[in-house]
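Fold this sequence, please.
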Amino acid sequence: MHDTHIIEKIYQTIDALSRQNGIVRVNEIDMEVDESSHIEGPHLLSHLKDRDSAMFGDWTVIHVEHKPYKKLTAVIKSIDGDGCE
């Protein structure tokens, strides 16, 4: 249940960062989550595609590394994407 909340927060943060930086299509995300999290790249990508299939798709690669952070912590290290032209 807790992962559902953090996944939605991750989506909101990626969406906001993408808007700020003119990204309309996300190609790659590099992130870290706490060791107790069940978040994995394919599961997260499925949620992101459901929320915004124009921004996220089968082309999106998500790297998730589990680190000894405080519970329910996620750190987005980088987002690579395409901007509007």
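The helical segments are 2-20, 41-51. The chain is about 35% helix and 35% strand.
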